[in-house]
Protein 1
Amino acid sequence: MSLDGQLPPKMRLLRAAAELLANSGGAAVSTRQITQLAGVTAPTLYHHFGDKEGLFDAVVAAGFEEYVAGERDFAPSGQPLEDIRRMWDNHVQFGLNQPELYLVMFGNIRPESRPAIVADAEALMEEMLNKAAAAGQLNVQPREAARSILAANVGVTLMLIAEPASERNLELSTMTRDAMIFAVSAEPASGTAPGDTGKSSVVVAAIALNAALQASHSDQLSSSELKLFLEWLHRISTSPA
Amino acid sequence: MSLDGQLPPKMRLLRAAAELLANSGGAAVSTRQITQLAGVTAPTLYHHFGDKEGLFDAVVAAGFEEYVAGERDFAPSGQPLEDIRRMWDNHVQFGLNQPELYLVMFGNIRPESRPAIVADAEALMEEMLNKAAAAGQLNVQPREAARSILAANVGVTLMLIAEPASERNLELSTMTRDAMIFAVSAEPASGTAPGDTGKSSVVVAAIALNAALQASHSDQLSSSELKLFLEWLHRISTSPA
DNA sequence: TAGCACCTATAGCATTGCTATATGAACTGA
DNA sequence: TCAGTTCATATAGCAATGCTATAGGTGCTA
């Protein structure tokens, strides 16, 4: 139960802290647990890191190095926006793989350390977005785009972490990701005119669906299913209500 | 320095905890500080709330009531998507006004309590999106849209909280907000442009009908018919583009 | 060998969340 | 009116926490 490996105590403390943090399930981790697992006594910890927070900052810094490495460690595809997608997915995956560490990095807020990390993550993404801008693919400043995308990226990751692993639906991530990337990209994005506020009755909706179905040859339903479906639809769309 | 006001101790504890939490600047708040400010001794706290966490949960619950009240307390404009914008702005403002409370609610994660709150916030937004869907203004399921928008909303708010108040640029919020809303909204008539990134009109119509049906208790179909009908409707409205 | 900087251990302090127990107050039924 | 019961608060103290004052090795240089 001790992390001896002839490693220097400083390293053992770092690893012990990281391991306990990762397995704590959100609960607090005591210095006594850490020092015991590291096979070291208390003053050693305070000699090397000054503080419990100092130790945790070191753990976070190490985690951030790993994060940055993950964000850089793929061959650029030549399509900057495609690379942004991969950065997004990497970010989410990092959060899901190391939720506790991620929470300390992006979920917690201590007015000094967090902005530094966030700023670095922003810079990382901005760097990539600069290429997109150079290729004329952005319709906003790269910095603003990076901030916006990263904010959404963090929000999605936090939400995915918060829900039980069995219910996690990564479509939330891809959908939000593509929405953000589309929003900053220079495609011919027409205005968002709300348009006519169509009536909201069941009848109107049913009629619309009916018409759309007739015209589209959807193959989601078998022919017998479709027949019955249309009959019901007709019943609904001719209802007196 | 005491919160006496002839209020019952339970209330004084709640207010003391809320006040200390709001002014702690992220630092830990001890039960002794709370009980002293409330003019009460320790066992009183544990009698009423069982736990330090129990007390904080109560504070969060009260904060959430306030949040929900803020989200409901404006006249519906008749344009659901415009109301969604206001919900977003309310959310951000709540976070900036009470950052510490907000962090406990949305930034922290304790696998039990947080998902409940997030789920409630989701439901709140989904409720509004149902109206948009019923009006044929959505191209995704209201639930998915709500999750996606809320995730981005939280991410933006956290990022704004993290940076010094002087540098806060709310344009990050409006830009991300409009990007998300645009992404989930159906292409406004103006030419129908079927091919583009928008989903087919069948899907839009099916989603609208689904939302309208849920809200209207139509009795044109028997319950068993309705069940099967909804199942098919779901199949259609989640079909790949 | 002596001196020196570095690293670690022994032991203990103040504060933390929490509780076993007891005391008071308010209500209930006779 | 009064004993019994329940609710609410206080006294005092426990175990665990973060942290530290002090002292003891350990290896290097001279």
Note: Residues 9, 40-44, 47-48 of chain A lie near DNA strand C (CB under 10 Å from a C1').
Protein 2
Amino acid sequence: MLDDIDRRMVETLVEDARISLKELAQRVGLSSPSASERLKRLEERGVIRGFTVDVDPAALGYTLQAIVRIRPLPGKLHVVQDLIQQIPQFSECDKVTGDDCFVGRLHIRSIDELDTILDRIADKAETSSSIVKAQPVKRRLPPLL
Amino acid sequence: MLDDIDRRMVETLVEDARISLKELAQRVGLSSPSASERLKRLEERGVIRGFTVDVDPAALGYTLQAIVRIRPLPGKLHVVQDLIQQIPQFSECDKVTGDDCFVGRLHIRSIDELDTILDRIADKAETSSSIVKAQPVKRRLPPLL
DNA sequence: TGCGCCGGTCGATGTCATCAAGCATTTTTC
DNA sequence: GAAAAATGCTTGATGACATCGACCGGCGCA
């Protein structure tokens, strides 16, 4: 699926996506045009969805994170989903199997803010929140086969 | 904390971190050197932690995702944490308050693989897994104040 | 009022991305 | 099994870009 050079390119770009093509090329042992061509194909194949920036929420004042499980009351599933999407402090949310229909990550500046946000959901769903104390595994790639 | 130009720079880079300085500059209405200077300071301030690539796990064969809650048995907390860190299919894991000590995201190619991985934890912790059916909120930034 | 600082522009210079041409190796086809 | 075609690479030329120094205007402050 990915050969060794592709893997090293992806791993290199995960560390610094704004590296020059020239440097990327020499790190994986290719010429710039070849690296450019491979990069283009990784994007075309959908392996690389895009290039982005890693922003630290804490540096923006969001010193707290919570993982919130949400179980909409009967008939409220769509309302709740819309509500979640409209609350920008949810930086991600998954719809999952099981009783807890949604699991989301909330970035907040205080416990107060958590309370305010959950109040908006409280009459449409049961919620269960856990404050993030540490991140033993920071965002990383699964193994590149 | 962030002025309007900073915000637009960050938002632009979230969309495409490999854009040229020149284009970034003209999108926010600055000259290239000014944009370069601001970018450098956003990194120095820790607002921007780095530039990275958005890899699609599905394109690598990881067509399934699970959210796993993990409650280590008494005395097993550190062993479990080490184990989680060593399992590369965990793309992220948070240590949280409450009974479920850890919440992680697992990328797997089949239900079989889920079973295999959870077996490695089973004698040290209780786990509760939910398969991700959809992602109503894809990874996004909290509001930039 | 005058001084110094901050954040900006402009223009020159060296680095980089990109394109076309060509080459070696592998795959396909008859 | 040999000719043809397709891959994937390199090199060198050209135009675009990042970066640096010099300079400028507005603002806070003694």
Note: Chain A has two domains: 4-44, 57-131.
